[in-house]
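User: Could you write out the 3D structure of this protein bound to iron/sulfur cluster? I've included everything you need below.
Assistant: Certainly. Input first, then the structure.
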Amino acid sequence: MSVVEGIKENPVEEFLRTDRLPHVWCSGCGIGTTVNCFARAVKECGIPLNDLAIVSGIGCTGRVAGYLRLDSFHTTHGRAIAFATGLHLANPELKVVVYSGDGDLVGIGGNHFIHAARRNLDITVILINNFTYAMTGGQVTPTAPLDSIETTTPYGVFEQNFNLPHLAASCGAVYVARWTAYHVMQVKKAMVEALNKKGFSFIEIIAPCPTIYLRRNRLGSAIDELKYYKEHSVIQHGADTRDVGIDIRRPEKIIVGKFVDIEKPDYLTAMNEHLGEVLGDKYVRWGE
Amino acid sequence: MAEIKYTTADPKGVLTGIHYMDGNHAACEGALAAGCRFAAGYPITPSTEVVERFSARIPLVGGVFIQMEDEIASSICLQGAVWAGLKAMTVTSGPGISLMQEHIGLAACLETPCVFVNVQRGGPSTGLPTLPGQADMQQCRWGSHGDYEVIALSPSTVQESFDFIIDAFNLAEIYRVPVFFMMDECVGHMTEKLVIPEADKIKVVERRYTSKPPEEYLPFKPDPDLVPEMVKAGDGYRFHVTGLTHDERGYPVINAQAQKEMVYRLVEKVEKNAPKIWRYEEDEVEDADVVVLSYGISARVALKAIEMAREKGIRVGRMRLIVVWPFPEPRVKEIASKVKAIVVPELNIRGQVAREVERIVEGTCRVVRVPHAGGTVHDPQEILDAIMEAAK
Ligand SMILES: Cc1ncc(C[n+]2csc(CCOP(=O)(O)OP(=O)(O)O)c2C)c(N)n1
Ligand code: SF4
Ligand SMILES: [Mg+2]
């Protein structure tokens, strides 16, 4: 997305804060690829741009909010979902998207993640999983597979990591998908679906961090990583999320696809229904 | 420049009438009268009644209460609600306010108008969950990292828990700062008469929304009073805010110059407007030998000691801070030049407000601390002894 000589127009330019380019991401970084998908999804999803808001936490991925020409909030480390909760509840007409990293959303922010999923808040959470705290130089995150070398696990990771689709699904998310940065068409499609889903929708996108994670783990270049995604991803829509964990570095297969897509009343619907029932005419319905 | 627009309270939120309730319930009613339509909280003694009442009242008024998973979440959830257009508060005590510190800095940095209610208990750590303290006074001023200023008010009575929280919401809107409502366990739990006026007698400040079109609007370009105009999500401005040091566009700029511009303005918008923010009450200060300066429940306890001292013929004046931060420096300086001593009773042992008095009077008069570790209030005799010693 950096400004390249000779290229006159970028089809997603209108969704970007072009006055902030060039961006901070390294070349080969998977985050930018997903932002490109997101801009295309925004274009396709049918939601008026003025009704979309994006919230990020802190990290390389946390910078996403700052590059999108939407109402955008760059908040604190791990707390984007809690901010988004207030934004959404106060104005339910907004479609609120949280876009952040693995360390941010399920490390420091894990508590907010599980509770937002449990409440089935009508927000979309996009998590870029690069298996590391990239912005701070590559420390271990709760998604890092066994044996990963991180600056704080120089002898390799020995603690069990999270299986994120399973975490989201078991906490109550109504839409759960996983793709990689290689699957740009599927990522875009999943984003469109998630944006139009009522309730807590969650997309995990596995993405290369060539500067830190790939280099430190001697996994080659970003291109090598994308090739690996291509060759080892197995699409299994509706897979049992218990079986989709990524326990080791470079497993034989990465199961991707749309795992969950169910209907359930979201938080505000449940609130209005319940309070309407209990309080009758005295209840002032909210956001309807 | 966005005019500061005053309206009157929305009658839907106002329980006009004479009531008998405690300070925590009164603070909730005050918040509703001020137009607060969103609260996020997490249970903690002795503050919980505020959100318990809010959760019962708000469905009848129109708005949202959410019990969040912790205070970290509450203290940023409410800011999301503010940026979506509502007035919002969170309510907590001791351990909870400690957890909220990062987001108090965020509110200062994003200039989110919002109210943090702290019903103070004894600390540190879990301390005295059910008993009073006033030992968070310095924390509320500068507890988050970095340079910024806030506004803090402290009520002494149930009526003031209602009246002053309205002021707290109004000040938050005018200056776009987090405003602390520094109650304590005694004021929160004491029950007394509360008069709630008619809605049209309650003055409420509206948010400083810009009237500029999106192409002319800069989110952090200040008005002459150093406060920028606001917008909210969904209005088509497609603005950006960040907790990183930022310029007038709201874009991150990571250098010393941008830092200087931002933090000086955050501090000066409170400092330079302080004369409009100070609120204090005085009596018999003019010909006093000794002035008792206090706030919150301690100011109320001091009344008895002052009465006893006056009966003994000592000329005692009284200054009660309603707004503690920003501190009314010039007035305290002036008083110091005329009296022998200023006596400062408070429920902490390190002189959290007394040391501010000492700093300001620069030795012009004596400053007599009357420390108390909390858990109960002063015995008026302790304050009387300090007054008598000071009058010598
Ligand atoms: C409260 C707090 N703790 C620590 C940090 C330091 N910090 C900044 S970014 C980051 C890691 C982000 O990792 P992740 O969310 O995975 O994003 P990535 O950089 O990998 O995209 C950390 C620990 C912080 N900003 N705030
Ligand atoms: S450090 Fe890694 S995650 Fe961060 S921008 Fe560079 S490649 Fe991307
Ligand atoms: Mg990461």
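The interface with chain B takes residues 17, 19-20, 49-51, 53, 55, 65-66, 69-76, 79, 82-91, 93-94, 111-112, 115, 271, 275, 279, 282-284, 286 of chain A (CB under 8 Å).
User: Perfect, thank you.
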